[in-house]
Structure to design on (914 residues):
């Protein structure tokens, strides 16, 4: 009997939690975004909850304009640890939870990225994941000699080749290349070293990578793009996708579209786990859950709410907060902006109501209720071809995650929807993904099997 | 009474130790260069020995040609952990020892480097150091779209500006910029945020850095350049220099030259600690020390010895191993090559004798003897204006370092030349270097003091 399909869970560790006012929560450590112990605690809670992975979003620069003035200095999304260094440290205080770091393909070199994630995979015993992003903001571009971000098409063209080079570098050494025979003095078998010699439109990279093949064969690749180019990149290369959707219909359309694109890359739909963001706020009663959420909602200052909208819709501070959302005149080319506009139109929201509706989940689905309510909501999408799992967006950290682990996870387990122990040692094993055989080893195996077949004829 | 000047000690953790045959040592873990526990043990031994810092050399690519063929596959200098990820992990299993990672200014962007070292400094509680290198090999260049390394002058021009940008980014936030007042919702004081807006010949970087000012104010800067450009960069910016010299005269000339260049950058010579490499091989008797060294010398295969010479002098495999060193026809522009030639000429060495003489220290000073012999040798340079301390190059790891910690350190302590406990929590404190006041805070303090002076008149 095949194992029942289980819901996958990740957690986003950005800021002090996903809610705009997270750092002001009465029980939060206000400076936790720069405190190592805050992240130690958070990843340990994630592991206690048997989550597949803890995920660190990232920007190569502050990604938010101070618009309206004061917006930036009233949030905590200004400073943070660099993800690869932080997750390497956290690998030492956790055993099983996956560690997914964001790295930009627009402002990096593939050789560095290949090395760092390979190194994290070794350090963590096979728990590394790379969240591939193309860095959309002009603020980041200005830290790398540009006036603004390159156009989306160009960024994605580069990203596709970038991922290709990184994957090629990860195959520099076969699994058993290192003999390390002290007696003969042979350290590696030269036949099992493969020089990449990549020559492409954006990159010329000789290789080999100076890191041994990693415990997962290669680190897990995560993608979050919602645009057409993002979907294509995900279908071609991703093991996990973090999606954003508010409704079952949108989530299902996205899910089916991405999975339908996979066969053209020779991939089976099961090889990609789609995990939409989910802000889950549990309470023993619905009222308790609402009260918990309301504590944070009341801490959202107008300048911060307007700042959150300004990232996608431009500065709206000249309009009446309690009036309707005007047609945005400074809209950025970002799918999140459209989600916000749809939310406002669908529910006839004022500007204040709109920023309060996104203050928690920033456009991701939000479920506030009993553990049963939350797991019902998960099941609907999980069984409705809309999700393989969820990327939990805790309101604040670590408390909001502790609530999910203590209340929601047991309900998922009770229904047989979630693991009761980690299945494997590596992130890949826990995600139920196969170990990627080295292409040269696969070719040798195929040749041998053909030769044996011919001999038998 | 002022504290007596103490000898500083660092340790190089490259490969499986500095000796070419380190990985073949009978007690070594042959694959330790890719084993996390090997490095955990090594840094913990360094900390037991109260060393200032553990240092990880690095190349962005394999830096050794397979010349003569087989040279590469018979050494372990082919794969390694990426330094910033590894040292972040090691920060979690050590308390006091400094953690110095190498990063190239030629193939990186200053924003990434500034972030990653700032992050490591936070993770380690103020123990991060950046070893600034310009990456001399063509093999590294070929991983970044080039056919060969840029000329040295250009690399150093870029390095000088690069370090300047990184230091500017590290001053994005004043020490007390983050108010994090939950009641008012003010996270930081905008007056204490400084946008760099760097526009230079090689870089345009707006800033600010998205990492809070670090426990050391800024990470320690380490340099190892021996050339004129390297010395100038060290005099201008370095806190620590790893030098390479064989003789007291050469070491003293280097020491005095670099320190003499400092005042033109407004720096006092005490602000830079010069720590030549020292391969120290202790034994209870001189014979025991020699025997220990001989174990490794006998494991050096000719192909590996020739390979080590080939990096600097070209492939000499067509010559008689037991004949004299010919005039090199394929010499690389590297100061280490000249050291090798001088060694051969000074002692009339055959090719085999030359590679055996560099098999351990690779051109660095080597002292094989009793702890008293080794500390005598240290004192000669330390009191002879040739060294502020030493970068210990263990023959193999962790054993070669354990011998130094167990035999040499106690002798240094007995003579009052070395600490008996760490003086501070940060690398900067342990090196006896002052905390760098933020320039804006310094300017405010100066203005205030002037205003008070005027008022008193």
């Amino acid at each position: 009997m095949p194992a029942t399909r289980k819901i996958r869970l990740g957690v986003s560790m950005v800021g002090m939690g996903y809610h705009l006012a997270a750092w002001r929560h009465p029980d939060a450590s206000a400076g936790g975004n720069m405190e190592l112990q805050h992240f130690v605690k958070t990843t340990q809670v994630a592991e206690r909850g048997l989550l597949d992975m803890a995920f660190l979003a990232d920007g190569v620069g502050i990604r938010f304009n101070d618009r309206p003035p004061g917006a930036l200095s009233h949030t905590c999304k200004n400073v943070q640890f660099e993800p690869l260094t932080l997750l390497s440290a956290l690998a030492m205080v956790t055993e099983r939870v996956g560690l997914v770091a964001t790295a930009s393909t627009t402002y990096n070199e593939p050789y560095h990225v290949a090395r760092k994630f390979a190194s994290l995979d070794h350090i963590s015993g096979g728990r590394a994941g790379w969240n591939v992003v193309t860095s959309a903001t002009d603020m980041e571009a200005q830290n790398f000699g540009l006036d603004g971000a390159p156009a989306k098409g160009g960024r994605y063209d580069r990203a596709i080749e970038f991922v290709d080079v990184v994957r090629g570098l990860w195959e520099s050494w076969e699994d058993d290349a290192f003999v390390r025979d002290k007696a003969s003095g042979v350290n590696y078998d030269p036949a099992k070293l493969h020089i990449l010699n990549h020559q492409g439109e954006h990159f010329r990279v000789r290789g080999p990578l100076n890191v041994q093949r990693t415990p997962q064969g290669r680190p897990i690749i995560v993608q979050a793009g919602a645009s057409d180019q993002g979907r294509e990149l995900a279908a071609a290369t991703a093991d996990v996708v973090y999606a954003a959707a508010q409704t079952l219909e949108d989530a299902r359309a996205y899910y089916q579209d991405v999975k339908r694109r996979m066969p053209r890359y020779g991939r089976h739909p099961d090889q990609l786990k789609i995990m939409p963001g989910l802000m889950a706020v549990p309470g023993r009663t619905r009222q308790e859950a609402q009260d918990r959420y309301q504590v944070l909602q009341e801490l959202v200052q107008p300048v911060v709410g307007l700042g959150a909208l300004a990232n996608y819709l431009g500065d709206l501070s000249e309009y009446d907060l309690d009036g309707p959302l005007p047609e945005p005149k400074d809209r950025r080319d970002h799918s999140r902006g459209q989600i916000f506009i749809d939310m406002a139109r669908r529910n006839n929201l004022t500007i204040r109501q709109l920023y309060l509706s996104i203050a928690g989940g920033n456009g991701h689905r939000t479920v506030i209720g009993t553990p049963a309510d939350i797991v019902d909501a998960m099941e609907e999408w999980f069984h409705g071809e809309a999700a393989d799992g969820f990327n939990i967006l805790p309101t604040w950290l670590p408390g909001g995650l502790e609530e999910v682990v203590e209340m929601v996870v047991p309900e998922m387990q009770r229904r047989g929807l979630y693991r009761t122990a980690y299945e494997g040692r590596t992130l890949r094993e826990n995600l139920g993904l196969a170990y990627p055989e080295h292409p040269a080893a696969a070719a040798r195996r195929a040749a041998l099997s053909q030769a044996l077949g011919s001999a038998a004829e």
